[in-house]
Please model this.
Amino acid sequence: MRILPATLATLAGALAAATSACAGSLELTPSDAATVLSGHHLDHPNPALPGPHDVLTLYYGSGTDRNRAEYRDSVSIVTQPVDASKLVSLGNSAKSRNEYWGFSPDSFPINARVWYPDDPGPHPLVLVVHGNHNMRDFSDPGYDWLGELLASRGYILASVDMNFINGGIRGENDGRGWLLLKHLQAWQRFNDDPDGPFGGRVDMGNVGLIGHSRGGEAVALAGAFNRLTRYPDDASLEFDFGFDIKAVISIAPVDGQYLPADQRAPLNDFNYLVFHGSHDGDVTSFHGLRIFNRVRFSERAGEDADTGGGAGSGMFKSAVYVYRANHGQWNTVWGAHDNGPRSPRILELDGLLPPEDQREFGRVFVSSFLDITLKGDDRYRPLFRDHRVAGAWLPKTMYITRFMDASFRPLADFEEDIDVTTGSADGVTLHGADFSTWREGQLDLRSSNRTNTSSSQLNQALWLGWNNGYRSSDDPAPPAIFTFTLPDGLAEEWSTGPETSLEMHVGGLDDEPGPRTHPDAEKDGNADQDRREDRREDRASTDEEKPPLELTVQAVDADGDTARVGLTHYGVLRRPLTIRVLRRRDIEDGRFANPWELILQHFSIPLSDFAAENPAFDPGTLRSVALVFDGTDAGTVVVDDVGLARLHPGFRGARVPRE
Model:
């Protein structure tokens, strides 16, 4: 058979395309860690270092476990099983699972391995629970790195066994959350037993929960169930918990696997930390941001935070996005293979953080968070407002962080209505000048693909796109400016002053709108053509290296005195970080809407810094704040949660001068 040259060219092109599609897709954003993490502003001991206590270990459990020798032969405390049959259904796999485990949901064991300090205490109690995994590849030993550290630093940590819920069942996260609370009931009994190993050694007034993956949602559900008197899906099951859960940590959590009363669980008045890796091959989007957004602080907690007293004093929530971290390396049993044995063929593993670096980040943030929330040690609080203050402690990768405390009062969080000119607080008005894009809308998760747009962060924000150039003219254009104006008396009502901070979340995009039409240009009917050219420029610009985004924040007081500071003095305003998780680029592009996830960075600007720039500016009579887009000629940002908060006395930002 004779093959024509054109046919050969077509075949060659198809082969090249297939080879390209199958080739590894490793692509990483160049790291700025050498600059961003070059400073260190905390004089306190590294919280990731072991503490002064020797560490002891033991097991508690049924004493009859068929598959786990440690919970059969090595238990120091025998516990009674609990009936979870109203919360967990095994479906068609019930027979095989019950045969393997030797028990069914009506007699689930209360098993855990414990690390604790060789010291009479009492010590705060922390439970950690794994997520879903092969039920025969036991997951609970995988948090030894946390157990050893926290016990040496004066905590009791129990890694809870829920392997018997793992495997191919769904909708069981209510059961996981409930089981955690049943463990806390067991710990109350341990503490009340003067003859037991933990008699009087447990500080039940300071309890923390840590969960990974499905466990990350389960700990949030436990926080919600803890305050209920009945199970939402079957009120015949009574709840009687009410523990002093003050700290909840989710590691790469799912969200919405279980929906109590067919809605996402409302979460109130506990400190919350969530972190997630950009290169997570299992939970491929930062679902924990949804949980972060749902954690609310009551008015009483906010009042206590303002005055520095009360049970809710200092309550806060924090979210951290860790570039190049994956799902499984938070657990030493799971490791790098987020998709099981097939991972080397499916996932792009070469760009991952070394596992010890990933866990070192966990040590720093988990230990700091628990010291603040369970021990009242506020020395580490600045880390959560601005991670750059701890550059010497953090592994050298890139981080995007979010923060909000109970004292925060929104000027505009973009959740309240569809009017783009009004803020969240009564009387606050919004105004934009010279923008190509000014709209409010919902933030998407990366897993929102071209055929399924329902995957959302469930959070509204503000989009602003600008270009400070004129089309067909060399005349300078005034910079775009977006202003938040406060009504008379609001600053006084909120007691603003030098100890107040301006808070916001901001993220950059690659989109660059085209130049503006000069105001003196004739209206020649070419507006449609101009808009088409703008859209072409937007698309073309995404393939080019973009300069860093810079902008100025302006504050004006009641007398009109104005002060300005650079936003990027207070954090890093990055464009989206590139993510390639799958080895097949064609599959990745078909599965995900974008090769990045839009995560907004927290910025905290003390009003005293504005006064330092202009001594005539009075923080106590603040009348407006504005974003002035004078540092970058063209770009797009997303803005959320603009408001005011009380600065904690220990906060010292890592403000850096603009180069």
Remarks:
- Residues 355-375 form the longest helix (21 residues).
- Confidence is low (pLDDT under 50) at residues 1-23, 306-312, 449-453, 527-542.
